[in-house]
Design brief:
Blueprint: H1 3-8, H2 13-17, H3 35-43, E1 51-57, H4 73-81, H5 89-99, E2 104-107, H6 114-128, E3 133-137, H7 141-152, E4 161-163, H8 170-179, E5 182-185, H9 187-194, H10 202-206, E6 208-213, H11 221-240, E7 246-251, H12 257-265, E8 270-272, E9 282-287, H13 296-299, H14 320-333, E10 338-342, H15 345-362, E11 370-373, H16 379-390, E12 396-399, E13 414-418, H17 424-431, E14 441-446, H18 451-458, H19 461-464, H20 478-491, H21 496-502, H22 506-515, E15 519-522, E16 525-528, E17 546-550, E18 556-560, H23 562-568, E19 574-577, E20 580-588, E21 593-598, E22 603-624, E23 627-647, E24 653-658, E25 664-675, H24 677-682, H25 690-704, E26 716-721, E27 731-736, H26 744-750, H27 752-765, H28 790-803
Parallel strand pairs: 2-7, 2-8, 3-5, 3-6, 4-5, 6-7, 9-14, 10-12, 10-13, 11-12, 13-14, 17-21
Antiparallel strand pairs: 1-9, 15-16, 17-18, 19-20, 20-21, 22-23, 23-24, 23-25, 25-27, 26-27
Helix pairs in contact: 5-6, 11-20, 14-15, 18-27, 20-22, 25-27, 25-28, 27-28
This protein binds zinc ion (2 copies).
Length: 806
């Protein structure tokens, strides 16, 4: 059997195999223009060619495998009935390992059919053993609901799959606990509901044969570290009931998945990484928006941020949002089914709105074929957008990467990626949405005006020649470990054996909990002393999501995570929802809601914060003569203090208004370097220019760190000062934006020379004269990008690099 034969069974074999989502949407309209022709037309629009590199990603033929002999005929028939003629090689390999009892992770590309790899062994076992049960975990309720539809559609006797999450009616919960043998839930529900209620779940847990962890690459950073301990708590309860389930994990392509899965589960895990599913070739272009001419009013009716505070000081590139909106409008006008990934929810709304406007200007009504999609939408709204795409009413969609976890959209003709998504793993996952089987597709990375994106579009080897990153999580983070041990102690007293289960740092954390009066040691173990359970939020430091409510109607528009609420929903903020503009009247942090009213002012709002930092302890350092490089704990205090209003049409700053929001404290991990004042003077940095030099170096260093660590710019913060009281020297700090750290600063410290070398090159290679967002300006600067000195930043980094050992 060839892959073509296989493909002709249903026409869209890759989609059928990706049964993790019943809402899989395959491209409806006929094929658009060939990607190479399309790209030629897109890049010919302006005076200068914006494309810096074109990479051809070749097509791949699929490698099918026979059904495992242990798979019962009933199960094979059910899959065949759903269009799966046979598994691909990687699906069969992972399924066989899991069926033999090995913990396994299948880490392959988008739409490679990972769900069959766990459905096969799990469902075969449930059918063969009338008592066996399966627990399936997805990072979102939406994904669990999609997976439920996929399993239910197989119509297998006696499986009774059911979702058990916050939306499950009380009346159904007992039935599910007693009768369902395939329960789909999420880590939050496992943590808040199932584990604390383990007595009620004893029947289910006693018979647990498989734990499926879908999209497990999303469990990274602090959230991932929490989930790692929730899984240890699950293993502990299973062991108490005599069950030792097999763990099957599914992940996007990632570096060293076996190690990451081992850290997540605490078990030895075998990795299957060879993707044997077929896919079409992709033409991948790197796109750098042009620098705007000095007199912007002549060239573009709507230059972004081109006037106001920046115009006299700095040159500016056309914004990636506008460039992406134009590309989206152009591809939709060509009848090309296009998905644009935009990093922020606000950005996705802006791209959709601008593309709609451009299309309506060309052909009234055509704008209706473009929409925005993001995680904060309510379920009904998401489903409506999915339906519209399914029926071809929509051709263009602008989305945050929430889509990665919501509906499974594959087989698009073009994917636009507005700004580097932070990791090569995410980049490939997003680009993987393009390409129907046997057809060529186009992917375009549109560089944002920031140091990392600029560096990448000029160093394609850093994208196409480098392996994808490993998923970083740190279960030993004491800010995660202690609360998780407290939760575990409530579920059952902790024993010395449990300390082994919870791993490095567990004994110290227990000792601290005892000292704090939370645990009491008795001969039979450590006991929780309080009546109430500890309140632990897996999604961590951000706090509970804030509801966005329209005051006049009481309608819930959506939610914003707590960490972003100070920035996005402060009173006076302009908040976009589905292209409709709202103004926030009041942010009520106590009630977790923001009251808004529909209004379309001609300005946008930009929040500002101030930050203070003190060193708590030094963990490690390198003494390099006039330069010192440090890793340690710090306390960061920050507060959103004001916001700017800027005219949408011109970017002009109208005014800056104060805000009265509480400060937020953060004990975290930082990397920092110091330089002696003498070395700076020798390098030609005048004393008056030291603050601007350090500040510029800090911005660029933050911008380039994602090249080294699996974080994005918004996961980390920085502060620089010509004389810091704790270091008594000119200092640049870069810190993890998560309590207890998430491993990012540690990576930066470990790769300091390479990191700062890339930083220096990015600044030096930038074509601007005095600094721009592509090199030393930062979109999240609390000081309005002032002072900044680009040439002195290069001098500072040269001093560091000549002294620091590689
Ligand atoms: Zn620049
Ligand atoms: Zn700054």
């Amino acid at each position: 059997m060839t892959s073509n034969d296989f493909g002709s069974a249903r026409g869209t074999p890759r989609h059928d195999l990706e049964s993790s989502s019943a809402a899989t949407v395959s491209a409806g309209p006929g094929p658009g223009p060939a990607p190479a022709d399309l790209l030629r037309r897109l890049r010919a629009r302006g005076a200068a060619d914006p494309v810096t590199h074109v990479e051809r990603v070749p097509a791949r033929a699929g490698v099918p495998a026979p059904w495992p002999s242990w798979a019962p005929a009933e199960l094979r028939a059910a899959f065949t009935g759903r269009g799966v003629a046979a598994p691909w090689q990687h699906q069969a390999e992972a399924a066989n390992l899991a069926y033999e009892g090995q913990h396994v992770i299948v880490a392959t590309g988008t739409a490679s059919g990972k769900s069959l790899a766990y459905q096969l062994p799990a469902l075969a076992t449930v059918l063969a053993d009338p008592r066996a049960t399966v627990l399936y975990l997805a990072p979102t309720k939406a994904l669990a609901a999609d997976q439920l539809r996929a399993v239910a559609a197989l119509e297998l006797e006696g499986v009774r799959p059911a979702c058990y999450d916050g939306d499950t009616p009380r009346t159904e919960r007992e039935w599910i606990r007693r009768h369902s043998r395939f329960v789909l839930t999420n880590p939050d529900m496992l943590h808040h509901g199932i584990l604390p209620g383990h007595a009620q779940w004893s029947g289910f847990l006693r018979r647990l044969a498989y734990v499926v962890i879908d999209e497990c690459h999303t469990y990274r950073g602090v959230f991932g570290s929490h989930v790692a301990h929730v899984l240890r708590r699950l293993r502990r309860q299973c062991a108490r009931f005599g069950a030792t389930p097999v763990f099957v994990l599914a992940s996007a392509t990632s570096g060293d998945p076996a190690t990451a899965a081992g850290r997540l589960t605490g078990l030895p895990v075998t990795a299957v990484t060879e993707d044997a599913s077929p896919r079409g070739g992709v033409t991948f272009a790197l796109w750098e928006p042009p620098l705007l001419p000095p007199d912007t009013s002549a060239s573009s009716p709507v230059p972004p941020q081109a006037t106001g505070e920046h115009d006299e000081l700095h040159q500016v590139r056309r914004s990636a949002l506008r460039e992406t909106a134009d590309l989206l409008a152009d591809t939709v006008a060509e009848g090309v089914r296009t998905l644009a990934f935009v990093r922020s929810r606000k950005g996705a709304e802006v791209v959709a709105a601008n593309a709609r406007r451009a299309l309506d200007d060309a052909v009234p009504g055509l704008g209706d074929r473009v929409a925005a999609y993001r995680g904060g939408y309510l379920r009904e709204e998401r489903r409506e957008l999915e339906r519209a795409l399914l029926h071809g009413d929509l051709l263009g969609l602008a989305s945050t990467n929430a889509l990665e976890l919501g509906v499974d959209l594959v087989g698009l003709d073009a994917v636009l990626i507005c700004g580097y998504p932070g990791t090569r793993a995410s980049l490939w996952q997003q680009a993987g949405r393009a390409g129907r089987s046997g057809q060529e597709a186009l992917a375009v990375l549109v560089a944002r005006d920031d140091p990392l994106d600029t560096y990448l579009v000029h160093h394609p080897e850093a994208i196409f020649g480098a392996p994808v990153e490993a998923t970083v999580l740190d279960p030993a983070n004491p800010y995660v470990l202690a609360p998780q041990l407290a939760c575990a102690a409530v579920e059952a007293p902790l024993t010395p054996a449990d300390l082994v289960l919870f791993g490095e740092g567990a004994k110290e954390a227990v000792d601290e909990l005892v000292a704090a009066g939370a645990l009491r040691q008795r001969p039979t173990g450590w006991y929780w002393r309080h009546r109430e359970r500890p309140e632990v939020d897996l999604r961590g430091e951000g706090g509970a999501p804030v509801a966005v409510v329209e005051s006049s109607t009481g309608r819930l528009l959506g939610t914003v995570d707590g960490g972003s609420s100070h920035f996005l929903l402060h009173s006076g903020a302009v908040y976009l929802h589905q292209g409709v503009s709202y103004v926030v009247d009041q942010l009520d942090l106590a009630d977790g809601c923001a009251l808004v009213r529909a209004e379309e002012p001609d300005w946008s709002t930009h929040a500002r914060d101030v930050t203070d930092l003190s060193v708590v302890s030094v963990r490690s350092y390198v003494d390099a003569g006039p330069v010192g490089m440090f890793l340690g704990e710090v306390d960061v205090t920050s507060q959103v203090v004001s916001y700017q209003r800027r005219r949408i049409a011109t970017g002009e700053v109208i005014d800056t208004r104060p805000l009265d929001l509480p400060t937020r404290e953060l004990r975290t991990v930082a990397v920092w370097f110091t330089l002696s004042p003498q070395s700076l003077a020798l390098a030609g940095v005048q004393p008056a220019d030291v603050p601007g030099a350090l500040h510029a170096a800090e911005h660029a260093a933050i911008g380039l760190l994602p090249l080294m660590a699996t974080c994005d710019r918004w996961d980390i913060g920085g502060i620089s000062t010509a004389l810091h009281p704790d270091t008594e020297a000119p200092t640049v700090f870069v810190y993890d934006g998560h309590p207890g750290g998430a491993g990012f600063a540690e990576r930066a410290y470990g790769t300091a020379a390479a990191w700062l070398r890339a930083t220096r090159d990015a600044i030096a290679e930038c074509g601007c004269d005095t600094g721009c967002p592509s090199c030393v300006q930062s979109p999240k600067c609390g000081n309005g990008n002032n002072p900044l000195s680009k040439p002195d930043a290069i001098r500072v980094l040269d001093v560091v690099l000549t002294n620091l050992p590689d």
